[in-house]
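BUG: 3D viewer hangs when loading the predicted structure for this chain

Environment: internal workstation, default settings.
Expected: structure renders.
Actual: progress bar stalls at 90%.

Input used:
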Amino acid sequence: MPNEKIEHKKYFEDQFDDEEVLFVFHKHPVVMRKGLVVAMFGPLIGILPAFIKPELGLSVFFMGLGIGCLLGLILFSPSWIGWHFSVFIVTDQRFIQITQKGLFHRAVADLSLNQIQSVNYVISGLQETLLSFGTINMQTYVGDLVIHYVHHPARVQKKLLSILRQEGVSVAQYPVIQNIENEEEAEAQEA
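Structure tokens produced before the viewer hung:
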């Protein structure tokens, strides 16, 4: 029985057989705001014929409104697809960033948990404060990974750090010097 492998449920295509998904998060829905603004032009364009020629009647108005709403959904769909299929996955072995842009562009970044040195977050400005989103900064051995528009970045950072601690990954802690006088005294004693 010790040679048996534990099979975990597969949540994504590239998941290893012995890998367990611990945490999944998306960006804040605010990333879809441009698509939503563009989508609002759909119903506006749909009712234009009834607005220009009111004698066409209400049937043309409602038909144009329905067609305009369909056009709006079509215009909004690339933005929604980009948000919905862009996902961040933390497993017991690695951190995976999947970024979808439109229908035909997908980028995947795969990072071992052992490569993560620190996880920090920044919330700056009125909009980020009111809508509860911000930026997560991960310092790694291979460079910095910056994730913008993270929903509740403090919670995400806390969860990431608890997963790193749970998996035995030590995040480098630097000693805090309380004041300059203590530092100068230590230097004088060494000399």
